[in-house]
Design a protein that fits this description.
Na+-dependent transporter; membrane; globular; Na+/solute_symporter_sf; mainly alpha; Na+/H+ antiporter like fold; 17 helices
Length: 311
């Protein structure tokens, strides 16, 4: 009971806990580097918590939503990065930041997207469905992007990493849904709050391992850090705002938060294990900076997603 109360208390301060995770990752780069090998396991834990919070009935949703989910995944993960490739090519913009933005758009939603949606006070089920569909389609959507960008590396490695992530999602979801079905069919509000608190803590721990390049860059190359941070904010928040506003104008307020969040917050970290070091090493600073707008989404995007809640 004490643990449940403590986790419920953490849920009430979930946004602050995310900021604390960012601060630890920046202030302690050595600790962040030591955390990196555990990112895979921590991501699996995040997926389990999100699936446990949502439950099988909400996650599956109506079958008529499947076609929409596939269409959204194709738009976000294939059409957008291909359009970005064309625009960057015409503008003559090359280099690590251009590559990072393309990879970010080509990735599936982050595993914590349902958790971020919860922290904005909105329904996480659409975000979880999109996470599953987007990850399942990643082996298909990533092919044209890598084919048109041979410098990114071997497509086979990416497909293998996507397959591993999909297997992790399946195992985490099955385990969580089994627990919900047999032991938590109708969880109390107190239990839901405890799960939300656990989610916030897990997300704060995960981000530490992704921030290893940020701390040193702040002190050693501050101008490079500021440019990478500005590009990360523009890519993340730009997509979130555009998608959320379009959905609100289309009369789909209940989808503005979950789909806005998954539009701007993509699992670029997936490519850490899929691409060669020669491609990834120049992107580590961007990947670290990208976590900052991601984890500040519940705070800085509150003005947008508060209006996007279902009536």
């Amino acid at each position: 009971m004490i643990l449940v109360d403590a986790l419920a208390h953490a849920a009430r301060h979930g946004r602050l806990i995310l900021v604390l995770g960012l601060a630890v990752g920046i202030a302690l780069p050595g600790f962040a580097l030591a955390m990196r090998p555990w990112i895979g396991e921590l991501i699996a834990l995040l997926l389990f918590i999100a699936a446990l919070r949502v439950g099988p009935r909400q996650a599956v949703g109506a079958l008529r939503d499947l076609g929409n989910s596939i269409g959204i995944a194709l738009l976000f993960q294939m059409a957008l990065p291909l359009a970005a490739l064309l625009v960057f090519h015409l503008a003559g913009w090359t280099g690590a930041l251009a590559t990072a933005l393309v990879l970010m758009m080509a990735a599936s939603p982050i595993s914590g997207s349902p958790n971020l949606t919860i922290l904005t006070g909105n329904d996480p089920a659409p975000a979880l469905r999109q996470l599953v569909i987007g990850t399942a389609l990643l082996p298909l959507t990533v092919i044209p992007v890598f084919w048109l960008s041979p410098a990114l590396g071997d497509v086979a490695q990416v497909l293998s990493a996507a397959g591993r992530l999909l297997a992790i999602i399946a195992l985490a979801a099955v385990a969580a849904f089994t627990i919900r079905w047999f032991f938590l069919k109708t969880p109390s509000l107190r239990t839901i709050a405890a799960i939300d608190g656990l989610s916030a803590i897990a997300m704060a721990v995960v981000v530490v391992g992704l921030m290893s390049a940020v701390g040193p860059a702040i002190w050693e190359t501050p101008s490079t850090f500021m440019v990478a941070l500005a590009v990360a904010f523009a890519g993340n928040f730009g997509l979130q705002i555009a998608v959320a506003l379009l959905l609100r104008r289309a009369g789909r307020k209940h989808l503005a938060a979950p789909l806005g969040i998954i539009a701007g917050n993509r699992n670029i970290a997936l490519f850490l294990t899929a691409l060669p070091a020669s491609v990834i090493d120049p992107l580590l600073l961007f990947i670290g900076c990208y976590q900052i707008p991601m984890y500040l989404t519940p705070i800085l995007m509150d003005w947008l997603y508060r209006k996007g809640k279902a009536a």
